[in-house]
Q: What sequence folds into this?
C-alpha cells in the first residue's frame, strides 16, 4: 500500500498547484507539500509521480510549502483552504493510511513477542516440543492476521522470515522434520503438476481459452498457500509460466485470424469484458465478505488496538467497495452497449446473406425461364416460316385473286396470333417470376429461417412457367398444323374450282 500521493489542486484563491502527501506511519502524521503552478513544471510532476511516490529522493524546487497534519479517522487530512481535483483519492488514502498506522502498531506487538520466543529458542540445547508448539501458535496468529490483511505483506514477510529462522533452529534439533517437509512438498508438487498437465491438454485441443486462463490463475493462487522445497517451487513456477505463454500465443493467433471481422472483434471485446466483470464482481464479493467479516469481528476484538484497527479496515473496505462498484456499473453499461452492437451486426450479416441467396435464386429462375423462352421461340419461328411459305406458294395471280388474297391474309393473321400468344406467355411468366421474387423477399424478412422453402417454391414456379410455355407452344404448333392441313385442303379445293372456271 502506497504511503505517498501526488495530485493537482487549488488554494483558497483558486490558484492551481501541485499537492503531494506523505504518510509517516510511526509518527501518525501526514506531511503535505504544495507547489505553485509556476514551479510545478511537467518534468517535476513526472518525477514526483514516477520517482517520489516510489520513495526515490527528488529535489524540491524553491517556493514550496509544507503542512504537517495529524492523521484522524474523522477530520480530513487536507486543510479547508486546499481543494483537489480528485477528493475521492484523498478519502481513500485517509482510510487506507489509518489502517497502515494501526497495522504497523500491530506488527510492532508481534515483533516484540517474536523477540521473546527467539530468546527461548537460542537458549535451547535440545529439541523442545512445547516451544515448537508455542512458536507454531504464534505463527498461526500471525498467519490469521496476514490472511485478514491486518498485517501488510512486508510486515508479514519480515515476521515469516524471522519465525522461519527459529523453526530452522528447532529443525536442526529434530532432523526428521526436514524429511517430512520434503515428502509433503513432493506430494503437493505431484498434485499441482497433474492440474497443470490437464490445462495444457485442453489448450492443445483448442478449447475455450478464457476459462482456461481463469483455471491457471486459480492454480497459481493456490500454490502460494502451500510450502514447497526450493526446487519444487521453481519447477512449478516454470511450468505455470510456460502454460501462460502457450495460452497467450493461442489467444493471439485466434485474435489475428478474426481481426478483420467486426462481429468477431465485438465478441472478443464482449468476452473480455465478461471476464473483467466476473473478476470485478468477485473482487466486490470478496470485499463485501471481508467487510461483513470485519463488522462481525468488531465485537470480538482483543483489546482496543485491534478494535480500532478493525474499524479503520471497515472504513477502508467501504471506500474500496464504493470505487469498485462504480467501475462495475460502468462495465455493465458497456456490456449493454456491446450487446446492442453485436445484435445489429448479426442482423446485418443475416440480411446480407439472405439477400445474396434471394439474388442467387432470382437469377437462377430468370435464366431458366429465359432458356425455355428461347427454345420455344425457335419452335415458333419454324411454325411461322412454314405458314408464311405455304401462304406464299398459294398466292397465285389468277382470277380468283381476291379469294387467295383473303386466304393469304387469314394465314398471316394466324401466324401473328400464334406468335403474339407465345410472346404473351413469356411476358406473363416473367411477371409471375417478378411477383414471386418480391413475395419471397417480403416473406423472408418475416420468416428468415424458412428461406430455403421459399427458394424451392420459386424454382417450382419457374418449372411450371416453363412447362406452361412449352404446352402453349406445343398446342399452338398442333393447332397451326391442323389449321394448315385444313387450309391446304380448302386451298386445293378452291384452286380446283378456280381451274374449272378458267376452263369453262
A:
Amino acid at each position: 500500500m502506497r504511503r505517498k500521493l501526488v495530485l493537482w489542486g487549488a488554494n483558497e484563491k483558486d490558484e492551481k498547484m501541485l499537492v503531494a502527501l506523505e504518510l509517516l506511519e510511526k509518527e501518525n502524521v501526514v506531511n503535505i507539500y504544495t507547489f505553485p503552478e509556476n514551479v510545478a513544471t511537467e518534468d517535476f510532476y513526472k518525477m514526483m509521480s514516477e520517482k517520489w511516490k516510489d520513495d526515490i529522493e527528488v529535489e524540491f524546487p524553491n517556493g514550496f510549502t509544507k503542512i504537517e497534519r495529524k492523521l484522524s479517522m474523522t477530520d480530513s487530512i487536507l486543510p479547508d483552504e486546499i481543494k483537489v481535483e480528485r477528493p475521492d483519492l484523498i478519502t481513500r488514502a485517509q482510510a487506507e493510511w489509518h489502517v497502515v498506522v494501526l497495522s504497523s502498531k500491530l506488527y510492532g506487538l508481534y515483533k516484540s513477542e517474536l523477540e521473546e520466543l527467539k530468546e527461548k529458542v537460542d537458549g535451547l540445547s535440545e529439541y523442545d516440543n512445547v516451544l515448537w508448539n508455542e512458536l507454531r501458535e504464534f505463527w498461526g496468529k500471525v498467519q490469521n492476521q496476514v490472511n485478514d490483511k491486518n498485517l501488510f505483506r512486508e510486515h508479514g514477510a519480515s515476521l515469516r522470515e524471522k519465525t522461519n529462522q527459529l523453526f530452522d533452529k528447532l529443525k536442526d534439533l529434530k532432523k526428521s522434520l526436514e524429511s517430512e517437509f520434503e515428502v509433503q512438498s513432493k506430494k503437493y508438487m505431484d498434485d499441482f503438476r497433474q492440474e497443470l498437465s490437464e490445462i495444457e491438454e485442453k489448450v492443445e485441443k483448442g478449447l475455450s481459452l478464457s476459462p482456461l486462463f481463469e483455471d491457471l490463475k486459480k492454480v497459481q493462487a493456490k500454490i502460494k498457500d502451500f510450502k514447497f522445497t526450493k526446487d519444487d517451487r521453481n519447477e512449478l513456477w516454470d511450468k505455470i509460466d510456460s502454460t501462460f505463454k502457450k495460452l497467450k500465443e493461442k489467444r493471439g493467433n485466434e485474435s489475428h485470424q478474426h481481426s478483420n471481422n467486426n462481429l468477431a472483434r465485438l465478441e472478443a471485446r464482449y468476452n473480455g469484458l465478461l471476464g473483467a466483470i466476473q473478476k470485478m464482481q468477485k473482487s466486490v464479493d470478496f470485499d463485501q465478505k471481508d467487510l461483513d467479516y470485519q463488522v462481525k469481528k468488531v465485537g470480538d476484538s482483543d483489546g482496543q488496538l485491534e478494535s480500532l484497527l478493525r474499524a479503520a479496515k471497515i472504513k477502508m473496505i467501504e471506500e474500496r467497495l464504493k470505487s469498485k462498484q462504480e467501475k462495475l456499473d460502468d462495465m455493465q453499461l458497456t456490456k449493454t452497449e456491446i450487446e446492442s452492437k453485436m445484435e445489429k451486426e448479426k442482423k446485418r450479416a443475416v440480411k446480407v446473406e439472405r439477400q445474396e441467396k434471394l439474388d442467387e435464386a432470382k437469377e437462377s429462375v430468370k435464366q431458366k425461364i429465359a432458356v425455355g423462352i428461347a427454345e420455344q421461340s425457335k419452335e415458333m419461328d419454324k411454325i411461322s416460316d412454314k405458314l408464311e411459305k405455304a401462304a406464299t406458294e398459294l398466292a397465285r395471280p389468277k382470277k380468283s385473286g381476291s379469294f387467295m388474297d383473303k386466304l393469304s391474309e387469314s394465314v398471316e393473321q394466324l401466324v401473328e396470333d400464334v406468335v403474339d400468344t407465345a410472346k404473351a406467355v413469356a411476358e406473363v411468366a416473367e411477371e409471375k417470376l417478378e411477383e414471386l421474387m418480391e413475395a419471397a423477399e417480403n416473406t423472408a424478412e418475416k420468416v428468415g429461417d424458412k428461406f430455403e422453402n421459399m427458394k424451392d417454391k420459386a424454382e417450382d414456379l419457374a418449372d411450371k412457367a416453363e412447362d406452361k410455355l412449352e404446352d402453349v407452344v406445343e398446342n399452338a404448333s398442333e393447332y397451326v398444323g391442323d389449321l394448315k392441313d385444313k387450309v391446304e385442303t380448302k386451298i386445293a379445293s378452291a384452286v380446283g374450282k378456280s381451274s374449272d372456271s378458267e376452263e369453262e
Q: What stands out?
A: The first strand starts at residue 4 and ends at 10.
